[in-house]
Amino acid sequence: MVILMEYRLGNSLRIKERGETLETICPNCKKVVKFGMFSNLERRLVPNIKLVNCSTVFFLVCPECAGIFTVDEQKGDDFKKGNKFAITDTDLMPLKPFRSEDINE
After folding, report:
1. Nearest to 5 by CA among 100, 95, 94, 105
2. Helix boundaries (H) for the chain
3. How far, in Å, CA of 51 to CA of 67, rounded?
4. Which of 47, 37, 45, 30 is CA-nearest to residue 78?
């Protein structure tokens, strides 16, 4: 049995590159690397008040193991404004599964 996980990194078609972090330890491969930082928008319609809630999803990619992590939106905004010290290895969080499927093989 194989379990496929699907993750959501925003729902906009445009992903923006935000630069590289300072050297930090990857939680996945334990190597000291500079993560590539990207952002995407997550828009959601709130039907009962007819409002579109828009937030920014920040995600980082390890250049060694291709591990993908996310950070808090405030930390991402601070990084985007030029604070290279805003993100450390303790800020990296695993992605939350959006959907999973069991496939029998």
Report:
1. 100
2. 73-80
3. 34
4. 37
Coil, strand, or helix at residue 101? strand
Q: Which tokens go with 77?
A: 């905004």
Tokens for 87, please give them: 């993100």
What is the value of pTM for the model shown?
0.70
Q: 39 is written with which tokens?
A: 């952002």
Residue 19: both structure tokens together: 């630069």
- For residues 58-77, b (16+ Cβ closer than 10 Å) or e, as one string? bbbebeeeebbbbbeeebbe
- Give the tens place of pLDDT for each residue, 39-80: 888 766 666 666 666 778 899 999 999 998 999 999 999 999
